[in-house]
Amino acid sequence: MKLFDVYPLHNIAIVRAEGSYVWDDQGTQYLDMYGGHAVISIGHTHPHYVETVVNQLKNIGFYSNSVIIKQQRELADKLGKLSGKEGYQLFLCNSGAEANENAMKLASFHNGRKKVVAFKGSFHGRTSLAVAVTDNPNIVAPVNRTDNVIFLPFNDVTALEQLFAQQGAEISSVIVEGIQGVGGIKVASPEFLQAIRRLCDQYGTVFIADSVQCGCGRSGKYYSHDWAGVNADIYTMAKGLGNGFPIGAISISPKIAPKYGMLGTTFGGNHLACAAAIAVADVIAADRLIDNAREVGEYLMSELRKLPGIKEVRGRGLMIGIELPDDSTEIRKRLLHDEKIFVGSSGKTVIRLLPALNITRDHADRFVTALKKLLTA
Ligand SMILES: Cc1ncc(COP(=O)(O)O)c(C=O)c1O
Fold first, then answer.
1. Ligand 1 centroid vs 124 CA: distance in angstroms?
2. Which residues span the domain enclosing 361?
C-alpha cells in the first residue's frame, strides 16, 4: 500500500530531536523555528516529558471514560492555575478540529441556536463544522457546506454590531482566533475581542476562543485572547498542549452546565495523553515559559524589524509573521537547505515562526543573522 498523497513534502527525513534542534537521517542538524506547526511547546524530547510519558506507559496507557482517570483531574487543576481560569471546566478530546467541533456543538446545546459567526482568514480545522467555519473554499467539501455559518471581516467592530442588531437572537456562537495563524499572523485587536464579549453577553451568544495555535502560552499570555482583558466562554486547545502527543481540550465557563452524554469520546483524556499534557504544564510553570515566550518574542520581533527588505513583522510572543514584499518560497527554501533552519509560511508572502517556548536569544540571533544574509545577498 502506498501513502495517500495529500502533503507536499520537504525531501528530508527527520529521525531525532532535542530541544530546538532536529536531525535528519544523514546526521544534519537543523534549528527548529517552527515546532512542527506550533506543536512543540517545551522543546523536543524534554527529559521530564519523556520520563513522565514512559513511566505512565509502564503503568497503564489507556482505559475508557467509564472510570475515574486521576490524571484528568490533575491536568484540569494545572491548566486552571496556568491559565488563571480555575473556575472553568475541562473536556478532553484528541485534536484541534475536534476541540472546535465540540465547542460549537456545546454552544448550540447551551442556547438551542444554529448560527455561527466566523471571520475572513480563519482556520479552525478540517472536520465538518470546523471546516465550515474555516475561510478556505478549497478544503470545504460539498457535504460540509451549510447556511448556518456567517463570515464577517476580521477586526471589524461595525460589521459585527450590524449583524448582531439584525440577527443577534439567532446566533449560537462566535468563533475567533486571538491571532490568526494560517490566515497570516493577524492579531485580533483588543477592541474587536471586547466587542465580541459585549455582544455575546447582550444576545446570549457563546464566545469561543480558538486557542489551538495561539494558546498554551505561545503569545506571552496563556491565551492570546487574554491580551484584550476579556474572558471567553469556551477556549479550544490542542497543538502545544501535548508537545507532540495528540490531545485536544476545551475549557468551559462555569455558566455552561454539563449533562451526561452531551459530549463524549473514546480516546480523549486517556492516561497517556494526560500524562504528556501534565508534563508540559509542569515545565511551562517551572521554567516560566510564558514569560520567556513574551521576552524572547519581543526581542526577536524588534531585531527582525531592523532588517531590510521586510514589509511587516507581526505577532505576539513566539507567534510571529514576517511579511515579505514578494513570494517567500525561495527564501524559505534557502533557510532550510543552506542555513538549516525550519520555518513555516502563511500564504505566499509570510514566513511563519512558531518555535518552542523555551528558545533562547542565541537561537533568535542565529535566525536573524541567517535571514539577514539571505535578504541582503
Ligand atoms: C487555529 C487552529 N484551529 C484549529 C486547528 C486544527 O487543529 P488540528 O489539526 O489538530 O485538527 C488548527 C490547525 O492548524 C489551527 O491552527
1. 5
2. 288-376
